[in-house]
Amino acid sequence: MPTTVGATSSNANSYFGVHKTQSTETTPVSTPGFKNEEFDNALGHKPLPALNREFPKPSDEVDLQSMLDRQPGRWTVKGQMEANQRRQKRAPTEEELKAQRLRDLEKAKEELRASWRP
């Protein structure tokens, strides 16, 4: 026989009501013994933007043209595009496939003829 529970003052505002084992005590906002300053220092502060930083001056003259003439690095967009082009294999054409099949057929014929010769 199903039982129904009417809304009481303790569970009127909650869909699930208050369970017997639920604690009505409030939990502390922070962990005891934990200092907020330690957390802030552990994460560090936000770094300055690159345009606001002080960078050291180069020790010798900068040759811009030689830098532009250098090959792109491996992990640059241009470097990845060039690496992909080197990696890509050209798909054989229909004529090349037909020629390869004919070569394979002739090779198989020669092997069979060689096995039948005394």
> Care to count the β-strands?
0
Number of helices: 4
Major sheet attributes: none
Mean pLDDT over the full residue set: 77
The helix fraction, in percent, is 40-55%
Pattern of helices and strands: HHHH
C-alpha Rg (nearest Å): 39 Å
- Low-pLDDT segments, ≥5 res: none
N- to C-terminal distance: 96 Å
| Strand residue percentage | under 5%
Shape: flat
Helix and strand composition category: mainly alpha
Biased composition (Basic and acidic residues): 91-118
Biased composition (Polar residues): 1-30
Region (Disordered): 1-33, 69-118
What is the strand and helix layout of this fold?
Layout: H1 36-43, H2 64-69, H3 77-87, H4 94-116
Describe the model:
- Residues 1-30 have a biased composition (Polar residues).
- Residues 91-118 have a biased composition (Basic and acidic residues).
- Residues 1-33, 69-118 are annotated as: Disordered.
- The mean pLDDT is 77.
- The protein starts with 35 loop residues before the first helix and ends with a helix.
- 0% of the residues are buried.
- Helix content is 41%, strand content 0%.
- With 118 residues, the chain is mainly alpha-helical.
- The chain is built from four helices and no strands.
- It is flat and about 95 Å long.
